[in-house]
Design brief:
The chain is an alpha+beta fold. The protein has a single domain, classed as Nucleic acid-binding proteins (OB fold (Dihydrolipoamide Acetyltransferase, E2P)), CATH 2.40.50.140. It is 31% helix and 30% strand. It contains six helices and eight strands; from the N terminus they run ααβββαββββααβα. A five-stranded mixed barrel has the order 4-5-6-8-7.
Length: 213
């Protein structure tokens, strides 16, 4: 059941993602939005999205931030931060992107993608336990064991499942949500100090050289 849910999310993202040629055909609209391939892309910051992830579910957004971590296990998860280094948003790649390279850590990136929601309830957790017993990976729970199944990794997963049940018990509606962005496109942005360095170099002059503007 869990695989089917995640499969639907992935297919939905692929159906609504724009090809490279289509992405160039954009028009500016009010409120910092762009119309792309008959879809609206909203430009937001990490801080804005963190305040209310639910409001952006299934919406196409463009968001910038610094990459503070990429999971070494397959490069399928990238985390970006805004002004608060302790709060990060998870980014997953679509099939076209494939993986995120570890070298991206520390870079500023601009990501275009769709906000996804996964609702976790007791039925989900039970199915999750069955999947983990068979060695399957899952978006709701992962570790950094790089595919190994030693006792320490298994104990970590069991602890996460226990934490899920505790969190479900604290909710009024019997579930809680996990959010992430499935990226259809991303680009690396130059740091401000890189621009300053270039500008300084362009405006430097040798001794005795006349400086005019």
């Amino acid at each position: 059941m869990i695989k089917k849910v995640l499969g639907v999310l992935a297919v939905t993202a692929i159906m609504f993602s724009c090809g490279n040629k289509e992405q160039k055909n954009t028009s500016q609209t009010a409120g910092g939005e762009e119309a792309c391939c008959d879809k609206t892309v909203t430009k937001v910051t990490v801080d804005e999205v963190i305040k209310d992830m639910q409001a952006y579910v299934d919406k196409n957004i463009q968001i910038g931030g610094m990459v503070n971590h990429i999971c070494a296990h397959g490069g399928k998860r990238m985390f970006i931060i805004g002004t608060d280094p302790d709060v990060a948003i998870k980014i997953t790649p679509n099939e076209e992107i494939g993986i995120f390279e570890k070298e991206l850590e520390g870079s500023n990136v601009l990501v275009t993608g769709t906000v996804k929601e996964l609702r976790i309830d007791e039925e989900y957790v039970k199915n999750l336990e069955n999947e983990l017993a068979s060695g399957a990976d899952n978006e709701a729970i992962h570790d950094h064991s790089a595919g190994t199944h030693d006792e320490e990794a298994d104990n970590e997963k069991k602890a996460q499942i226990d934490a899920m049940r505790s969190r479900i018990a604290e909710t009024e509606n019997g579930y809680y949500s996990q959010y992430w962005i499935e990226a259809s496109k991303f680009e690396i942005q130059e740091n401000d100090h890189d621009h300053e360095a270039v500008e300084t170099e362009e405006h430097s002059h040798e001794d005795g050289e006349e400086h005019t503007h």
